[in-house]
Specification:
Layout (H helix, E strand, L loop, with lengths): L2 E6 L9 H5 L5 E2 L14 E2 L10 H5 L5 E6 L2
Antiparallel strand pairs: 1-4, 2-3
């Protein structure tokens, strides 16, 4: 089964939350305790074991701040 890896560029992230909201597997969360220098609440790739590398989070990111990789096991 393929797994995924999400890399979040915190400098480009605007904290919209689309990545966390539209991740059907719950791999990305916005904990509310991590902020960018501009004050945006940043997402965290909190549950990598749940990610299948589908790429939906990356497609929906308006700031192009996510890179998604599919890893074959």
């Amino acid at each position: 089964m393929a797994k995924g890896e999400v890399i979040i560029n915190e400098r480009l992230c605007k904290g919209c939350g689309y990545c966390a909201h539209f991740c059907s597997r719950g791999a990305i969360e916005i904990p509310g305790d991590k902020f960018s220098p501009e004050g945006y609440s940043l997402p965290v790739f909190a549950h990598p074991e749940k990610c299948n590398g589908c790429g939906v989070c990356g497609w929906l990111c308006p700031g192009f701040s996510l890179e998604v990789y599919k890893i074959k096991e």
